[in-house]
TrEMBL record:
It comes from the Bacteria. It catalyses: nicotinate beta-D-ribonucleotide + ATP + H(+) = deamido-NAD(+) + diphosphate. Residues 10-170 form the Cytidyltransferase-like domain. Keywords: ATP-binding, NAD, Nucleotide-binding, Nucleotidyltransferase, Pyridine nucleotide biosynthesis, Transferase. GO terms for biological process: NAD+ biosynthetic process. The gene is nadD. Catalyzes the reversible adenylation of nicotinate mononucleotide (NaMN) to nicotinic acid adenine dinucleotide (NaAD). GO terms for molecular function: ATP binding; nicotinate-nucleotide adenylyltransferase activity. InterPro entries: Cyt_trans-like, NadD/NMNAT, Rossmann-like_a/b/a_fold. This is Probable nicotinate-nucleotide adenylyltransferase. Transmembrane segments: none annotated. It holds the Pfam family CTP_transf_like. Its EC number is 2.7.7.18. Pathway: Cofactor biosynthesis; NAD(+) biosynthesis; deamido-NAD(+) from nicotinate D-ribonucleotide: step 1/1.
Length: 196
């Protein structure tokens, strides 16, 4: 990566809804020493979740904005909603690299995604625009990556919080308690707007 450029992390997902596990991994990326800011990219139509019916983009965006409202080094971006569907990562990083030539981008992913990164659409082209920051459980064995991927990857320690958006949605639909799973501002938004 070019010296002197601001280093930005890109953290994408459907965030349906955003939960404390997302906040935890965002903090690990920011604390890694590689980036000075994190852009969170809300995906409208993830190609690998075509069969899943997502909550409206606007509601997911509002929850993200509330979750990270007090994080000065985080920007919530709707850029993927303004690019053609489906929301392939290569399209997003290509657009951002051309739009912001003065920045270095790092694609921030979890280790599960890193394991199958070579199945991503035009993955080599992704690596031509940005390097990877891979969040790895520090107590697990060493992360084994495809050699081509490993050349452009930086592994950082992250102690995950075991929460999934599916679990949160299921709890909401069964009138369960989601306090402690999502930020209080998101919980209030869900109660007020009933998106699930």
């Amino acid at each position: 990566m070019a010296a002197g450029k601001e280093a930005i992390g890109l953290f994408g997902g459907s965030f349906d809804p955003v939960h404390n596990g997302h906040l935890s991994i965002a903090r690990s990326f920011l604390d890694s020493g590689y980036i000075s800011a994190l852009w969170i990219l809300l995906t409208p139509n993830p190609p690998h979740k075509i069969e899943q019916s997502l909550t409206s983009y606007e509601l997911r965006l509002q929850m993200l904005k509330r979750a990270f409202a007090e994080w000065e080094d985080v920007t919530i971006s709707d850029i993927e909603d303004r690019l053609p569907n489906p929301s392939y990562t290569v399209q997003t990083v290509r657009h951002l690299a051309k739009a912001y030539p003065g920045k270095n981008f790092y694609l921030c992913i979890g280790e599960d995604s890193a394991h199958h990164f070579t199945s991503w659409h035009r993955w080599r082209e992704i690596l031509s625009y940005c390097e990877l920051l891979v969040a790895h459980r520090p107590y697990d064995k060493e992360l084994e990556l495809d050699p081509e991927v490993a050349r452009d990857a930086h592994v950082i320690d992250h102690k995950p919080i075991n929460i999934s958006s599916t679990e949160v949605r299921n709890l909401i639909q069964s009138d369960g308690d989601i306090s402690g799973l999502v930020p209080a501002s998101v919980q209030d938004f869900i109660h007020q707007n009933n998106p699930y």
